[in-house]
Amino acid sequence: MLDSVGSRRGGSHNRIGAIWRKNQPGSASSEPAPSQVWAIAVLTATVLTAPFAGAFGALAYIGPLMVGVGVLLNALSRRNATGIPPSPGPVLLATWLVFTTLVTALFSVQAEVAPLVLVGLVALTGCLAASYYRSAGDLRRVESTILVTSSVTAIAFISFAGPRVLGGGTNSWTLIYENSTWINSNTLGLVFAIAIGAGVGRSLRTDRRRLLPVLAVALCMGALALTFSRSAYLAAGAILLLVLVGKRKSFLLFLPLLLVGYANLPMAVQDRVAYTTSGAGGLDASSSVRLELWEAALAIARDNPLLGVGFHSIRPALAEYGAPAGLAFPHNTYLTLLLGTGAITFAIVMVWMGRYFARLVRQSHREPAGPAWTRLLPLTAALVCSFFGEPLLSPIPTVMLVALLAAPYARSASGRSNDL
């Protein structure tokens, strides 16, 4: 009798366990929930607008609008597929940014609306995307979507840029953006760098050695080279450096490839890198302007240490301190944050980001074949590119990055994948 009772109890527990596993996100037997299908559609629409966002800026906001719809649908259905509670950090930070912005606006006599609206929209997009993909996403599906759509974008960009470079002579890289409607090269370079980081991170997982990440990384590397974005080159180098440091055995495999690749860089890429030191003062015009902007930005920050001048007053403040006129931001995300919010908020954000980065590094060491690499490498690319511009002030790379950082990683009950 005890055996029969135990068997009935065991059967009951097994049925409950089977039902629980079936309802888990990412399980092999479950179909993608409507919220996950919508999440895939958001990422697809976001990345595929990159070729047209330069000509029609409003297209870049298709993805964020869809994110907002997804958040609304999730709220109405009262469903949370992962059981993960929303993080209060982004909400508190956004509230604090609104408060400091209002305070600086009260004392500003040269406020401008356009930069404030841009920063506000991108900040709102980031908060919505973080909340949405935390509850409705799946890291493996997010990876697959980014790799596929970025590969399509890379093919389109290579088809556009390749003939221009191959048909040109010295400094043919200048022909890429003549009469072009593509988005800013640094922003586009970050799009491809994020995809490269996601592909490399996925290939480092023992259950992910498949054709898709290898093909996507190869296509995005070729497209990134043709953006001629020096910040994107550095971002790709930082990704490679992290992998070589964290995966020391990979160094012996990658070293010959690196030496061959470096010795056979396309002439246009070599011209672009060499152009950096072609100016009369030792630097080209673009680099010289950046140094002037950074010098003025540091002076402004020194004179306005607590709350900064507000995002709405950066342009007139830069002009007042002798920087080149007509530039709304100092071509450095960190200095933009410092000028827009002041030293207090800047310190909070830097400590927050530093702790998160350090946690990802520790996780990548504890679980060398885990999902931490997929978050660490794209985040590293964004941090590097942000030092030389404000590429995250475009919703396209912002939604991609936030989706990768926020989406939960759920293993299937059978250990098999249910994505590409």
Automatic annotation (TrEMBL):
PANTHER family: LIPOPOLYSACCHARIDE BIOSYNTHESIS PROTEIN PA4999-RELATED, TEICHURONIC ACID BIOSYNTHESIS PROTEIN TUAE. It comes from the Bacteria. It is a multi-pass membrane protein. It is found in: Membrane. The lineage of its organism: Bacteria, Bacillati, Actinomycetota, Actinomycetes, Micrococcales. GO terms for molecular function: ligase activity. Residues 215-349 form the O-antigen ligase-related domain. Keywords: Ligase, Membrane, Transmembrane, Transmembrane helix. GO terms for cellular component: membrane. The chain crosses the membrane at residues 52-76, 88-107, 113-133, 145-162, 182-200, 212-245, 251-269, 334-357. InterPro entries: O-antigen_ligase-rel_domated, WaaL-like. This is O-Antigen ligase.
